[in-house]
């Protein structure tokens, strides 16, 4: 089998620590949606709760999950308005406070200097949000717009765990999914990569803020349920993890 030629990065909480900022915005609007369309539901969400339950989905996918969980429907004619409000609020928070994931910048710089792999971003989030994230953290020098793929901005819009955005990215890049590697931190993202037939590195660095128990839970989930070949705890371990994936590709 040909060696790995392409590295596909998730963005939120993989390249950029944006999820807490985004879910703070999501919580405000999710609670407004529940109040508007399910007034009998008394539960209200805080950002961390939403993040634990729905991390890896874009806001359109989150609304769909809330509809199923709480038994209500947002009218089709209202949906785009809510999605637009969330996008504007989240971008504002990202531009004000987003930072790179710890240790990722030296890895990106070394990959660019070596020029051995195609580098691309494959995200559930809307394209303007992804671009705001990488511009704010100065990662846009590694990912030109042609190498940034957004499930939310596809026609029609999708969200991980649907593998459509990964399959589309591989098609546009001219690469077989099996000759790529994806880096994902969430169940939905990892599931999307796995369904697309892309070898997976599971990343758990951001979960250390929630304690070792949560890290251990995510390690089990990413390996046992999502098929991760190897788990990366910190970006300093990236080369070792990539070598494990490449070794498996070559049957070593």
Folded structure, characterized:
This protein has 252 residues and is an alpha/beta fold. It has 2 domains: 6-17 and 99-249, Rossmann fold (3-Layer(aba) Sandwich); 19-97, DNA polymerase, domain 1, CATH 1.10.150. The protein has 10 helices and 6 strands. A 6-stranded parallel sheet has the order 3-2-1-4-5-6, with helices on both faces. Strand 5, helix 9 (212-225) and strand 6 (230-232) form a beta-alpha-beta unit. Helix 1 (19-37) packs across helix 2 and helix 1 packs antiparallel against helix 4 (76-97). It is globular and about 55 Å long. The termini are close together. The mean pLDDT is 93.
Features:
252 residues; alpha/beta; Rossmann fold; DNA polymerase, domain 1; six-stranded parallel β-sheet; HAD_sf; HAD-like_sf; HAD-SF_hydro_IA
